[in-house]
Amino acid sequence: MTAIQTAKAPTAFDELGGSFRGELLLPTSPGYDTARRIWNGVIDRRPSCIARCSGVADVVEAVRYARDHDLDIAVRGGGHNVAGTAVCDYGIVIDLSAMRAVWVDPARRTAWVQGGALWGDVDRETQAHGLATTGGIVGHTGVAGLTLGGGIGFLMRKHGLTVDNLLAAEVVTADGSIVQASADEHPDLFWALRGGGGNFGVVTSFRFSLHPVGPTMMAGPVFWAADDTTDVLRFYRGFAAEAPDELGSVVRFGTVPPLPDVPEELHWRPAVAVACCYAGAVEDGERAVRPLRSFGTPLVDLLAPTPYATFQGGIDDTVLHGWHYYWKATSLAGLSDDAIAAIADHAYAAGSPRSYTAMFHMGGAVARVPRDATAYAGRDVAHNIVIDAVWLPDESDEHAAAETAWARRFLHALQPHGTDGVYVNFLDSDDDADRVREAYGDQIYRRLAEVKAKYDADNALHHNKNIHPG
Ligand SMILES: Cc1cc2nc3c(=O)[nH]c(=O)nc-3n(C[C@H](O)[C@H](O)[C@H](O)COP(=O)(O)OP(=O)(O)OC[C@H]3O[C@@H](n4cnc5c(N)ncnc54)[C@H](O)[C@@H]3O)c2cc1C
Predict the structure, then answer these.
(1) Which residues pair with 304 in a beta bridge?
(2) Contact criterion met (CB below 8 Å) for 40 and 324
(3) Is residue 5 over pLDDT 90?
(4) Best substitution site from 52, 53, 72, 80 to test ligand 1's pocket, by max atoms within 8 Å of Cβ?
(5) Closest Cα to residue 292, out of 263, 272, 311, 316?
(6) 460: pLDDT strictly greater than 90
(7) What is the distance between the alpha carbons of residues 54 and 96, in angstroms, rounded to a whole number?
(8) Is 352:435 a contact under the CB 8 Å cutoff?
């Protein structure tokens, strides 16, 4: 073998590799193909380098290197965003997936959470102290992307959005500086981070306030046959309107997933489910959900005293990594008879038994925060809806086209009943790009653009729900 054959070929990233402590994955590296994949299996991008950071200093190095070499930058937290903005072609992915630590301070009821953590990590560590904060409803969703877009989940009506619980963030800005953002330091940046997405820097850690939660909660879903949807929703309209702040609920339209506690004969049967989680004493929760459980003839009732962390991971296997996904989203001011009719007409017309729609009940503490306090815009929305078309990687292009067409048709049918605005974290890729301004409304968007101009005037961070500077 000649010297030339044995020498390691120099790469454009050797200079970065000299000081970088984490893993640099190039297209020739073992593990590159796994590292470039994210939750949505549709996304198939090939970055020139994945910089898997081991800490804040690595993030600084990667940002500075990318800027000096004019590289496109994508930032990966949990890798769950359906639009796939966590990965880019050709450029560099600043990958925080190795930074998942959670430090709980039980005396102060706060937690520091690193920028690559998942909600399952946070729920596990905080619940060890009987504490929690509002997170998403699937344990393998990333903390960073979810928080930066607002953060909705079962605890929000009692404890506010995830951003309402954000006390501070450590951020590596687009020029590679490390700044702390809080109500006292860089308050403009802190305002923008609470809803404005990944536009303003790479967040290396978040500090959240925590609340006593559980550990056992009255929680779980009740399922009815899809044919009962109109009646269930008419009942749910009143039930939700009168619900105490403690009662969080999400309605799911689709099929009965093959969960361990569900009798096998019900698996994949078209059904509407109302999943509840009561953020208070189990006995009070039992009382609060009684009318729901006794409505009509449920197919199966899984509401029971359940450990919060178990409940939060309960549907993780119904939305697996690598399946193919396409989303459409809207918000409703209320559940009118016409909106209910549109849901009943379209929700079950998908071809795949895995496709579903989720409707989050908002209000409570979310609605009591003034609209201009954070960049999250949808304070007055009654229900946030996400239509999730799902198909398997080996299913045909025709099947994929039929599922995505279903999601678009369903959105179209709901739009006359929608409010202004849409939850930014539920937007998909190309055909939703022009909805970013709609998500925020003109006033919040303009303020975000000013903050963007201050912290990232060159729009170096643009693989996101992009706010244009200035
Ligand atoms: C199965 C599933 C369930 C969900 N459930 C909920 C829910 O209950 N409630 C809810 O509110 N949302 C929910 N979502 C939506 C979720 O909030 C978004 O998908 C969010 O973007 C996921 O965050 P992530 O860190 O995994 O994203 P990634 O895909 O890793 O990143 C998305 C974008 O966020 C930004 N970003 C990520 N990490 C950082 C960082 N450290 N610093 C700066 N910017 C960063 C970047 O712009 C990046 O392009 C769900 C999504 C899925 C797939």
Answers:
(1) 219
(2) yes
(3) no
(4) 80
(5) 272
(6) yes
(7) 8
(8) no
Is there an atom of ligand 1 within 6 Å of 80 CB? Answer: yes
Ligand 1 touching residue 355 (CB < 6 A) = no
* CA distances (Å), origin 289, targets 218, 243, 247, 283, 430: 9, 9, 8, 10, 41
* Distance between Cα 426 and ligand 1 center (Å): 9
Q: Is the pLDDT of residue 9 over 70?
A: no
- If phi > 0 it is left, if psi is from -120 to 50 it is alpha, else beta; for residue 70 that is left
13: confidence class by pLDDT, cuts 50, 70, 90: confident
- E strand or H helix at 391, and its extent? strand 383-391
**What token pair was written down for 148?**
């930066």
Output 431 or 329, whichever has higher pLDDT: 329
pLDDT of residue 14: 75
CB of 214 sitting under 6 A from ligand 1: no
What number does the ligand 1 atom closest to the CA of 162 have? 11
Contact 195, 137 (CB under 8 A): no
Split at pLDDT 50, 70, 90, the class of 12 is low
> In this structure, which residue's CA is closest to atom 23 in ligand 1?
145
Q: Nearest-CA neighbor of 54 among 78, 76, 22?
A: 22
Cβ atoms of 215 and 127 within 8 Å: the answer is yes
Residue nearest to atom 44 of ligand 1 (CA): 198
Please indicate whether residue 10 or residue 193 has the higher confidence score (pLDDT).
193
Residue 199 Cβ contacting ligand 1 at under 6 Å: no
Question: How far, in Å, from the CA of 142 to the mean position of ligand 1?
Answer: 5
pLDDT higher than 50, residue 8:
no
Kindly report, residue by residue over 123-179, the tens digit of the pLDDT. 999 999 999 999 999 999 999 999 999 999 999 999 999 999 999 999 999 999 999
| 150 Cα to the center of ligand 1, angstroms | 10
